[in-house]
Amino acid sequence: MKNRSRLLQQGIPGTGNILYWMSREQRVASNPALFFASYMAKEYGKQLEVLFVIDDNYPNANLRSFAFMIEGLQEVKLLLESLNIPFHIRIGTIPNEVISHINLHQNSIIVTDFNPLRHDVSWKKELFHSVYIPVYEVDGRNIVPCWISSDKQEYSARTIRPKITRLLYDYLHPLPDVESLKQEQTLASESVDWEGILDSLNIDKSITPINKTAGGKAAQKVLNQFIEERIRNYAIERNNTKTNGCSELSPYLHFGQISALEVALKVIKECPDDDNRKAFLEQLIIRRELAENFCYYNPNYDSFEGFPSWAKKSLLDHQSDIREYLYSRAEFEQAQTHDSLWNEAQGTLVESGTMHNYLRMYWGKKILEWSATAKEAMQTAVYLNDKYQLDGRDPNGYTGCAWCIGGLHDRPWFNHSIFGNVRYMGSKKISSQNRK
Question: What DSSP assignment string belongs to 338-389?
Fold first, then answer.
């Protein structure tokens, strides 16, 4: 547990409880930050409490993502209270609500989640200017902590894979059972009007919840179905857009309602060591942690400036190439292109909050092909991904957009109009995959 944590700020502990500021990892089971905070509470002879702040100024906040998140938080609250751990919900601005809570309760130590995205980094910097107690950060998202797997931005999966693989089995161990978190003393925990919270938030309510997609403990059901029904053909079917060969775990991983560690351990335990298991673990561990690495070490992860130098030069060299089709952001958003396949993908995204992983590549590549510049294409792709995807606002999404449009984690390909040396993709490739 200790080797997943790092001290962000030294300080003099307060007199109150240990505070776990939960943000990215919205679960109790297999949550390293929660277990680390519990360990610290026992070391200091203190009680543990958990705080979660719902901020309607969160980047690209909307009803779809908040309804899914709150469904999971309700389960978190019930489980924590069964362990005599109070769960505080605050509505307001991050980090102001965190600072107010600490000042009111005189907390001894803060433990919080690792997140490489700029809003979280800036919130923690603000926190440091206002509170002077020790602050620890724990990486509960990656199996190998991001700052340990590599000390620089990696060029590709090929360069990060041996680094993660070398360390993987030092970290690929289950956490203790949640019952070990139970506190003897019962502390007060406030009641929460969850529906009232949703109604009160000043967020985009035109992006409606996905009724068939439940948050929280539904993650376990989705994982079990994947293991029982689909992983046996994953290596082949995951790229077939006509079949349901994907894990469907992305929204749950994004909201931290299930951990990659837990998923990996269950897959290793219950599935044969074949090409299907290897292909899935490659995506779950190597590719996801490569995305975390990119966002952690590249502050321009969601813009043209974050692309590799060779791609930026090549795209700029081809910026004046004639585009047969040009669409505005509104036309993309409303699925008003000439391409029925692309329109279908965008329509599915708007209605269901998800898109087949392989089709996402085509979707992103065509945004580049039909935009005036690569810079504009990246802005459009990020906007649509973050607005509609349940797993948007995530390193995986930013990395995927940058791969499609800016050649990230790829190599230069044969020169092509508009794309330059960035890999081109046409609808024929989708069709050929579906015939396999």
Answer: S-HHHHHHHHHHHHHS---HHHHHHHHHHHHHTSSSHHHHHHHHHHHHHHH-
